[in-house]
Amino acid sequence: MGNRPVRHPPVLIIEDTISLRLVYRAIAMAAGHPVAVAGSAAEGLAQFHATAPNIVLLDVVLPDGDGLALMRAMLAERPETLVIVLTAHGSVNRAIEAMRAGAQDFLVKPVDEARLTAALANAANAPQRTLPAPAGPQANLFIGSSEPMQRIHGKIESVAKSMATVFITGESGTGKELAALGIHAASPRANGPFIALNCGAIPQDLLESEVFGHMKGSFTGALSDKPGAAQAADGGTLFLDEICEMALPLQTKLLRFLQTSTIVPVGATKPRKVNVRIVCATNRDPMDAVRRGQFREDLFYRLFVVPIHMPPLRDRGDDVIEIAETALARFAQEEGRHFDGLSPEVRALFRRLPWPGNVRQLLNVIRNIAVLHMGGLVTPGMLPESLFLQGIDGPTPTATDMPLHDIPTGLPPNLLARPLAEIERLVIEAVLTRHGGSVPKAARTLEVSPSTLYRKLEGWGVKT
Amino acid sequence: MPDGLTKWDPSGLLHILSLAGPADAALILHHLKDDLSAAAHALDHALTLGDTEAMRHPIHALVALCGTAGAACLHQKACDLRDQIGAGLDTEARALALSLQTGAARLAERLATELGR
């Protein structure tokens, strides 16, 4: 055994079944950890604030809210918290959902002493996350202290307390979902579920079922009753991303839902009342979608109650540097490397780039640097070539704004001399770059399904 | 009627009770009995109404409680019932729910009589 000191950081256990709560407490205390306990989501959040635990043992099913939504709220406040999720359901999907939401580990009940002790030990010895300490719950959602973002923080703080529908606009990669999460976390519904649905990523013929649920047998493949996102968000917040991609017939049903607060699952005859706060988002111009007849005007005015526009990264001043350096430190630690920051040339370049893919694109660039280089000062030579396909010194309009023949493609001049497979890859990558890395948007331009593009990208070893 | 407790192995629970110490061990046993009884009662009530939504929470609790108590058969019944009620409450699911409810109530009694000394 090595000489590394054994760590026993404080643990918070959030479990509504009393006997199980006492069992987990006994195991954690026997392993040497100071322990606080809570029996509900509300009590859990209060104890989280009061005791600031390093590790949270969290039951997914709580009497007053969804455990994963509580986890997101806790991680939004203190991202360095290590959450071990407990569930009685051993499905792989649930595990994936928990891990994607930020869980450190995932345990299936009943949890035996050995498994829980091992999970606590792994969490206690996990590498420290070095994100900057939050100044407040909202500040921790977004990195960057520019004036446009201060205004966004203020707006999120004001709208969170009400039930009004929020309509978030902004280019791809500007943090619309993060803003929606911030609204939820600061609202009286923070202990309720936060359900996000991307209306652009789901095939339209399945979207109604995804939103409103379906009854067993209502269509081919409906093997059992399935609650939809609206029901899953009952008592919490439903975030509808890319709302302008929703087909017109479903928009009609959405409008009825907004007017009556009732849902009718596909194949059902009885409506069901739900209590949901709606936040929606689009990176299109919603009024333009209305003018083109692609979005119902009455639905638009029903949704466009409190608009929030997320500023593009190029309009956020030095936030690009702050975000880049924070991400570089984080990714470097994950890769076991050390960088000395960004050189003055890279800083100057970053400030001038238009960043059509915004923060998401910036994070991809920083990840690329951390993976492909061993450390030191980040110089222009370390930057990925694709970064230089976009214009400098001015915003790059999106493909929907310009005639096709005016758009720089970044494609090599000898395209016709290359093998077909290479031509396909170059074109797909160029279209993706034009759309800021958005696969659904690139798929629409190329008139193929998003799943086709995901398959090709996976085959080329490109992470999405 | 078989109570599903032929494969009851309380050794894991006894080990946890030894970790907890005498005072907390008594508390754990007391609440384990109560939680099992409450879940069995809630399952019985929901079953009477034929309400599969109301059955979910007690089933979720029984998966964990029966497993923690070392009742492998009951734990498996709870898992099977959780998977089956998604498709509705047919005759087989009803029989399973009734067997689970009865078994959980029996387990609570045996915890009190055999471990609560």
UniProtKB/TrEMBL annotation, chain A:
Sequence positions bearing 4-aspartylphosphate: D59
Residue ranges of every copy of the Response regulatory domain listed in the record: 10-124
Keywords: Activator, ATP-binding, DNA-binding, Nucleotide-binding, Phosphoprotein, Transcription, Transcription regulation, Two-component regulatory system
Gene3D superfamilies according to UniProt: 1.10.8.60, 3.40.50.2300, Homeodomain-like, P-loop containing nucleotide triphosphate hydrolases
Annotated GO biological process: phosphorelay signal transduction system; regulation of DNA-templated transcription
InterPro entries: AAA+_ATPase, AAA_lid_NorR, CheY-like_superfamily, Homeodomain-like_sf, HTH_Fis, P-loop_NTPase, Sig_transdc_resp-reg_receiver, Sigma_54_int
Domain of life per record: Bacteria
Domain Sigma-54 factor interaction: 142-371
Family annotation (Pfam families): AAA_lid_14 (PF25601), HTH_8 (PF02954), Response_reg (PF00072), Sigma54_activat (PF00158)
GO molecular function: ATP binding; sequence-specific DNA binding
Role according to the record: Required for activation of most nif operons, which are directly involved in nitrogen fixation.
Subunit (UniProt): Interacts with sigma-54.
PANTHER family hit by this protein: PTS-DEPENDENT DIHYDROXYACETONE KINASE OPERON REGULATORY PROTEIN-RELATED, TRANSCRIPTIONAL REGULATORY PROTEIN
Protein name (record): Nif-specific regulatory protein
TrEMBL record, chain B:
Domain of life of the source: Bacteria
Gene3D superfamilies hit by this protein: HPT domain
Single GO BP term: phosphorelay signal transduction system
InterPro entries documented for this protein: HPT_dom_sf (IPR036641)
Name of the featured protein: HPt domain-containing protein
Organism whose genome encodes this protein: Fuscibacter oryzae
